[in-house]
Design a protein that fits this description.
The chain is α/β, with parallel strands linked by helices. It has a seven-stranded mixed beta sheet with strand order 12-11-7-10-9-8-15, covered by helices on one side. A hairpin with a 2-residue loop joins strand 13 and strand 14. Helix 4 runs parallel beside helix 5 and helix 5 packs antiparallel against helix 10. The protein binds (2R,3S,4s,5R,6S)-2,3,4,5,6-pentahydroxycyclohexanone. (2R,3S,4s,5R,6S)-2,3,4,5,6-pentahydroxycyclohexanone binds next to helix 7.
Length: about 350
C-alpha cells in the first residue's frame, strides 16, 4: 500500500477481455478512492488500447511487469485456468486480489490457494461472486434468515444467456455459468451444498455442436433445502437470471426484469438485459467499491477463497454428474480457521 493514507488504491487489472474491460471502465468512471495503474494482457495491443485514455496507467504483458511498476492491489480477470499461477505469488507478496469467478477450475487447485492464504494468516483474496451484491439476492437472503415466512423449502433458479462464444463446452456450462448458482444457494441459505445432480434432456437445435443445452441441475444443502437450476446458455432471448424461493408461508422472487412493463401493439412485456454487464451493473459497482474500501482499511470482506473452493467442489460434482446422471456427493476438506 502507498504510505499516504489519503492516496487512492493503485489497482492493476490483469486480463483486458470482456470482464476486465468492464472493470477498467468501472474503476475509471464510478469507483472512488481507486485508480487503474496498470493493465496486463498477453495481447500487448489490447493492453495498450485499454490504458490509452487513462492518465499515468501503464500496459504490460506480464503480471511481474505491472508489479514492478508499483501496485497496491489486483483485479484478476483472466480465464479461471490461469488464476492459480497468479494467485499464489500474489499471496506470497501480500497483495490483495479481487479474483473473478471461478477461483480456479478444479477443487484441488482451489484448495492449494485456500491453504496458501490460510498459511499467510490473513485474507487477501475476494472472489467475484457479484450476485452477493445484488439488492434482490441480498433481500432474499435477509428474508430467509428472518424466518417470517417460515422455513425455506425450495429454490428455483433460471439462468439463461442469449448465446455463448464459440468453444463453450458442457463443462463450462457448470464451471462458468452454474458456478454462480452454487454460490447463490450457499449465500442465500448460509449452508454448504452436499450433493449435485445434472440431467440433460432434449437439446435445442440452436445449441453449438457438442453442447447439451438446456440442462437441469438439482442441488441439496446440508439441511435438505432443494434447489433446481435451469441452465440454458443458447436461450436467444437475452440474459435472464431469476430465482424464486418457496417458504412454508410464502413465495419470493428475485428478477432482473426492468421495472417498466409496456403494453402496446397487442403485446405486453418488459425489457430483458442483453448481458451480465447490465443485469448486474449496480452489483458489480458495489462489489468493487466495497472491495476497494475494505482493502484500504484492512482486509477484503466479500466472498472468500473458501467460497471459491466450495463452489469448485460443487462444479466437480456437477461435471461428474453430467456424465453419469447420478446424484454426486460434494466432499469438502476441513475449513481452516481463517474462514470460520
Ligand atoms: C459468464 O462467465 C458469466 O459469468 C455469466 O454470468 C454467465 O451467465 C455466463 O453463462 C458465463 O459464461
Amino acid at each position: 500500500m502507498t504510505s499516504n493514507p489519503a492516496a487512492p488504491l493503485r489497482v492493476a487489472v490483469v486480463g483486458a477481455g470482456r470482464m476486465g474491460a468492464d472493470h477498467i471502465e468501472r474503476l475509471n468512471d464510478v469507483i472512488r478512492r481507486a485508480e487503474v495503474t496498470a493493465v496486463v494482457d498477453v495481447d500487448e495491443a489490447r493492453a495498450q488500447a485499454a490504458v490509452q485514455h487513462i492518465a499515468h496507467a501503464t500496459a504490460h504483458t506480464s503480471l511481474d511487469g505491472a508489479l514492478e511498476a508499483g501496485v497496491d492491489a489486483v483485479i484478476l480477470a483472466t480465464p479461471g485456468f490461469l488464476h492459480e499461477e497468479a494467485l499464489l505469488p500474489l499471496i506470497e507478496r501480500g497483495i490483495p486480489v479481487l479474483c473473478e469467478k471461478p477461483l480456479t477450475p478444479d477443487p484441488e487447485s482451489a484448495l492449494r490457494v485456500v491453504e496458501a492464504e490460510a498459511a499467510a494468516g490473513r485474507r487477501l483474496i475476494q472472489v467475484g461472486f457479484m450476485r452477493r451484491y445484488d439488492v434482490g439476492y441480498r433481500s432474499l437472503r435477509d428474508l430467509i434468515a428472518g424466518g417470517e415466512q417460515g422455513e425455506l423449502l425450495l429454490l428455483h433458479h433460471q439462468h439463461r444467456n442469449a448465446d455463448v462464444p464459440p468453444g463453450f463446452t458442457n463443462q463450462m456450462i457448470i464451471n462458468d455459468s452454474v458456478v454462480h448458482e452454487f454460490d447463490a444457494v450457499r449465500f442465500l441459505t448460509d449452508e454448504e451444498i452436499v450433493s449435485v445432480q445434472v440431467r440433460t434432456g432434449r437439446s435445442s437445435s440452436l445449441a453449438a455442436e457438442g453442447l447439451n443445452d438446456p440442462q437441469i441441475v438439482t442441488i441439496e444443502t446440508a439441511s435438505g433445502v432443494l434447489a433446481t437450476v435451469e441452465i440454458f446458455v443458447c436461450a436467444q432471448v437475452g440474459y435472464q437470471v431469476d430465482t424464486q424461493a418457496s417458504f412454508e408461508r410464502g413465495i419470493a422472487s428475485v428478477s432482473g426484469a426492468s421495472a417498466l412493463e409496456l403494453t402496446t401493439n397487442q403485446a405486453k412485456g418488459s425489457a430483458i438485459d442483453a448481458g451480465f454487464e447490465t443485469r448486474f451493473r449496480e452489483a458489480y459497482d458495489l462489489e468493487v467499491q466495497e472491495w476497494v474500501d475494505s482493502v484500504l482499511t484492512g482486509e477484503p470482506t466479500g466472498p472468500t477463497a473458501w467460497d471459491g473452493y466450495a463452489t469448485a467442489a460443487c462444479c466437480a460434482a456437477g461435471v461428474e454428474s453430467q456424465a453419469s446422471g447420478q446424484i454426486v456427493a460434494v466432499e469438502l476438506a476441513d475449513r481452516p480457521d481463517l474462514y470460520r
